[in-house]
Design goal:
about 20% strand, alpha+beta, 5 helices, 9-stranded mixed beta sheet
Length: about 290
């Protein structure tokens, strides 16, 4: 019986016909069912034929066009054309400042603000309006000569009255008491700032929102000068374990009781050498203290 089965194989090999290296694999039942102890045969299903794209000539790196409607403004353009148009528009608007708006001037509110500043011992002068582009400016800027009794503000400043009032309250309620806690007989003499009104974006960036400096809502504190000891400049002091670190932590922490934004060393590289204080209004009275 074995000789009968081997005969066709011998004839095939003698005629030079090559047999496939692997044979077909039978398909099992998906449930493994059997009939009378034998596996039930399941017909094999051929895989769908996937069309193969034609080969491109050497050096052709172009991609297929996106479907119609992929670009809403001009569906006939390719992605590269749309991207180029967008880049051209962004380049054209790169130097344009976004619009910012300050609260309107309320003379009754200003009169009340001025009265509060005088109670705190501030010496100030209301100046002519400052008007810049895209909403920059202050309709009623104030120059502060003395922020609280015996403490000058240097250099010249241009602030909205509510900003000056927040600064005076911080000085009277936080900075002066912190000064009194310093060793020896020390009194605060001058508060040095880096900027008040400046028409620019946040962090002096080329893009993004306008800074609160652009409408007189912000001031950058650089250092504190005293009678009886050396000045204390604002700088990274975390972990120093010094009285200067303690003073800086105290005045910075207390600032968020009077300002809605307090940024400084550790916030980012842009604020490593000063305290940024502003009075921006956010939803639900949120305050950013970093």
């Amino acid at each position: 019986m074995r000789r009968v089965f081997l005969l066709p194989l011998i004839v095939t090999l003698s005629t030079g016909v090559k047999l496939p290296e692997t044979g077909p694999v039978p398909v099992e039942s998906p449930r493994g069912e059997t009939a009378k102890g034998k596996a039930v045969a399941v017909p094999a299903v051929s895989a769908p034929t996937v069309p193969v794209p034609e080969a491109k000539p050497d050096g052709d790196t172009s991609t297929a066009k996106p479907p119609l409607g992929a670009f809403e403004e001009n569906p006939d353009q390719s992605g590269q054309a749309g991207s180029a148009g967008q880049e051209a528009e962004e380049s054209e608007n790169a130097d344009k400042l976004p619009v910012i708006s300050a609260p309107p001037v309320d003379e009754a509110a200003l009169a009340s603000c001025e009265a509060e500043l005088r109670k705190l011992g501030a010496v100030f002068d209301r100046q002519d309006p400052i008007r810049g582009e895209n909403g920059c400016g202050i309709e009623a800027p104030y120059s502060i000569e003395q922020i609280v009794p015996g403490v000058s503000l240097s250099p010249a400043s241009q602030l909205r009255c509510p900003t000056a009032l927040a600064l005076a309250r911080w000085m009277e309620g936080v900075v002066v008491p912190a000064t009194e806690a310093l060793p020896a007989a020390v009194t605060l003499a001058r508060l040095n700032h880096g900027s008040t009104y400046v028409c620019r974006r946040r962090n002096n960036s080329a893009t993004g929102k306008m800074s609160e400096h652009a409408i007189g809502n912000a001031i950058d504190i650089m250092s504190f000068e005293f009678k009886g000891r050396d000045p204390i400049p604002v700088s990274p002091r975390a972990g120093d374990g010094t009285v200067e670190e303690a003073f800086q932590r105290a005045v910075r922490g207390g600032a968020c009781l009077h300002f809605t934004t307090v940024l400084g060393p550790g916030t980012n590289a842009s604020h490593a050498d000063h305290l940024h204080l502003d009075i921006i209004k956010r939803n639900r009275g949120y305050r950013l203290c970093e």
